[in-house]
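# step 3/5: fold
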Amino acid sequence: MIATDASMHTILTPHMRRLAAQVGNTPLYELRNVFHKPGVRLFAKLEWQQLSHSVKARAGWRIVFTAIQKGHIHDKRRLLDATSGNTGIAYATFCAALGIPVTLCMPENASEARKRILRSLGVELILTSSLEGTDGAQQEAAEMAATYPDRYYHANQYANDANWQAHYHSTALEIWSQTQGQITHFVAGLGTSGTVTGTGRRLRELNPDIEIIALQPDTPMHGLEGWKHMPTAIVPPIYDPKVHHKTVEVNTLEAMEMVKRTAKKEGLLIGPSSGANLAGAIKVAEQLEKGVVVTTFADTADKYTEVMEQIFG
């Protein structure tokens, strides 16, 4: 079962416990072929191995649970949020199981596979301009919530503390245990910033010497769904720049090349954001003489049919 704080665990209903048991505790996979350097080890959390099949299961579950606990959502009030896809799929998965309706705002250029998955899970999907990215989807959701406050609970993953807390209470503790406390560097991309903020905050409490490296696209006009170029984007309120020690830029092309390379050398069909995380983690690892570098693989290639056709032909 996903690591939780005691107060959360004690008030879970039996049905919620069954859902929670499918979130977290993902394997830590050592990458031996795409990167090799004596004295340096590189690992990735295989985050697709949980309910809803992505890293966003952690934040999605905690956000939904917290909203139910506080009486914000029920079968007559819809959960509303903006998403690039994976958090929305997590919401839809858990809410379908709990009988809660969901409305999501999503950029129209999100992958067709993600749209099909969301619609099959019963989501009311509001498509927003591709030119405005997730920022535009956030603005649309905020306007809908302000106009119809009785109809919607605006989960707002970008400002919801349950987002980073999910990683604080689970991802960080799993990594610490799985590396026997030997982790020296944690590397992950910035979108909502929940993974970096929550995981980094807890890891630094466990060992202040652990370096936290945030990744971001090298340009505002990038092809990494869910990622933010912080200097030009709406900065998520939960983002805490004091958590990470530095920021490393990754471009879309090198992320896509890493997807292809990982398939051929590791036998893993990862998604573009996972490729970007790995590209960034390798940049960090290459500068070390000794260390244990950990990143996350957010999801697989399953939700990126069009992108995979471009990469693999």
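# step 4/5: annotate
The domain at 56-154 is CATH 3.40.50.1100 (Rossmann fold).
# step 5/5: archive (pending)
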